[in-house]
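Postdoc handover notes: sequence design on the structure in folder B. Input tokens:
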């Protein structure tokens, strides 16, 4: 089972034992939350998957394979801020009134379906936490007893999400967790520790599906999901009847100055010079899922560059390519089919008029193709 390190961030008295850390088998003791006399103090549980030695190993593997894990694009305050600026400038969820209304409609429907008195919201890949905060506010108005776990691979974003929800919940009702959803070896066990006893779980998965390979993330999501859980996820969609044309149509949402600044921050921090190469965005077929397409950001070196990371040297020659980012674009039917292959059933869905974004309410169901007993 994964270990957790408990860390405190904010104003407060100095620790009584410098350098001492405590490891917990549970995120927090059952029946207790974090209670601080000052709101700026936030207690965060860090999963073993995000311990320094594991993060370092994952980074080195990314550089060796020339395929960068997305979590490194959000790592640290600077990277997180670049992403927030991009999200605020280009995301339909922030700019399109109909998209905002679509989420509001979905949230209201979910609140109507959630009859349990006690509800624990788990925000997987919470980002800045704006959507979860909106959902929690509606649940609070419906007089539900609430608790919340913002969970992300980025400590900076977990802290942003914790701050965002402070307008709705107290610190004693918020249990932030830093966790690599693709690396944690027992995500289902970790998820089982997050909800207070007797609480109904509502799991959100906003904006993660497009940036995760289906064969990696969906089995983990299915293992985490319990029979009584609700799963509310979002996906970026390809508009129109022509799937390939729809993917090309949304390319400007990725190939823009804010995206380039965000992605290049990772390379620049490693010692790559801006003039060492060019960053290009292309559409490619998914190598493992027939018929599925994704937008990919690839950096191509125009000249040789040597960098050193964690005492390991990396040589990039002219013409070498590094995949920095990818984002799948689905159709609603593709979403339902992919989820169904892993025993996740879509029970309701809401799609924007632009057909560029969809919200899907799901529950654990029978795996497609499985024999009935």
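Designed sequence:
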């Amino acid at each position: 089972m994964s270990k957790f390190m408990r860390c405190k961030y904010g104003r407060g008295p100095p620790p009584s034992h410098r350098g001492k850390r405590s490891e917990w088998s549970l995120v927090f003791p059952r029946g207790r939350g974090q209670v601080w006399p000052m709101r700026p103090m936030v207690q965060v549980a860090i999963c073993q998957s995000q311990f320094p030695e594991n993060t370092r190993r994952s980074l080195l593997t990314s550089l060796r394979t020339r395929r960068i894990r997305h979590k490194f694009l959000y790592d640290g305050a600077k990277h997180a801020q670049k992403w927030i600026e991009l999200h605020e400038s280009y995301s339909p969820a922030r700019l399109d009134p109909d998209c905002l209304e679509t989420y509001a409609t979905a949230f209201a429907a979910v609140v109507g379906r959630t009859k349990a008195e006690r509800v624990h919201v788990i925000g997987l890949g919470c980002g800045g936490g704006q959507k979860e905060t909106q959902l929690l506010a509606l649940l609070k108005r419906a007089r539900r007893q609430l608790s919340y776990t913002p969970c992300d691979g980025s400590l900076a974003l977990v802290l942003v999400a914790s701050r965002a929800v402070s307008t709705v919940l107290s610190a004693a009702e918020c249990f932030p967790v830093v966790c690599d959803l693709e690396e944690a070896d027992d995500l289902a066990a970790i998820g089982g520790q997050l909800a207070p006893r007797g609480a109904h779980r509502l799991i959100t998965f906003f904006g993660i599906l497009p940036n995760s390979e289906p064969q990696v993330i969906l089995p983990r999501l299915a293992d985490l999901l319990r029979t009584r859980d609700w799963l509310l996820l979002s996906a970026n969609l390809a508009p129109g009847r022509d799937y390939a044309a729809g993917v090309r149509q949304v390319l400007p949402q990725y190939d823009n100055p804010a995206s380039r600044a965000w992605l290049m921050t990772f390379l620049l921090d490693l010692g790559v010079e801006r003039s060492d190469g060019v960053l290009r965005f292309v559409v490619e077929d998914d190598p493992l899922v027939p018929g599925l397409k994704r937008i990919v950001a690839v950096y191509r070196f125009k000249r040789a560059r040597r960098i050193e990371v964690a005492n390991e040297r990396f040589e990039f020659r002219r013409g070498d390519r590094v995949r920095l980012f990818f984002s799948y674009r689905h159709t609603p039917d593709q979403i339902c089919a992919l989820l169904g292959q892993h025993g996740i059933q879509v029970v309701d869905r809401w799609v924007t008029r632009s057909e560029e974004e969809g919200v899907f309410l799901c529950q654990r169901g029978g795996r497609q193709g499985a024999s009935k007993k």
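Context for whoever picks this up: Confidence is low (pLDDT under 50) at residues 11-38, 369-373. Don't rerun without checking with the PI first.
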